[in-house]
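Title: Comparing notes on inverse folding

I've been comparing how different people in this forum approach sequence design from structure. To keep things fair, I'm posting one structure and asking everyone to reply with a full sequence. Here's the target:
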């Protein structure tokens, strides 16, 4: 199984329909057996994807050609024996979310993730919060 972690930036001026990305991703990833986590503050995206080699390769190709984001940098790409994410989830802090509630949700999503994956998510979230 392959696990990939990348970061990207929302294309300035692009109308980002987060709900649309969520709906398409849930549909495709369930079909293809892809699990992982997409975090966004609507300016940056950080995504972990895991699944079969073929499923990750084709998801990455589709994602790379998506003009809604740019500057995709793969941070980690490795073989894994067992999944670290139980499902595919999207995390963004909604207006009704308290910081504590959001942190709790992230902790839950990342509870099975390896230290390097968890550290990358936590680092980016802290950096964006400080910006
Ligand atoms: C930040 C970001 C993350 C995305 N993540 C996924 C994903 O995990 N799975 C997926 O199938 N599409 C994802 N997409 C959407 C793809 O780029 C593409 O639009 C979609 O796969 C096309 O699916 P369709 O051919 O079924 O319409 C993502 C797009 C963006 C901008």
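Reply #1:
Here's my take.
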């Amino acid at each position: 199984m392959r696990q990939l972690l990348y970061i990207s930036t929302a294309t300035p001026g692009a109308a980002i329909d987060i709900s649309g990305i969520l709906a398409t991703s849930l549909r495709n990833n369930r079909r293809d057996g892809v699990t992982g986590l997409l975090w966004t503050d609507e300016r940056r995206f950080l995504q972990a994807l895991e699944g079969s080699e073929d499923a990750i390769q084709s998801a990455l190709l589709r994602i790379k050609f998506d003009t809604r984001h740019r500057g995709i940098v793969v941070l980690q790409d490795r073989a894994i024996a067992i999944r670290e994410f139980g499902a595919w989830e999207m995390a963004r802090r909604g207006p009704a979310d308290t910081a504590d509630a959001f942190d709790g949700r992230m902790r839950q999503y990342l509870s099975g993730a390896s230290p390097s994956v968890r550290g990358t998510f936590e680092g980016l979230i802290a950096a964006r919060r400080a910006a």
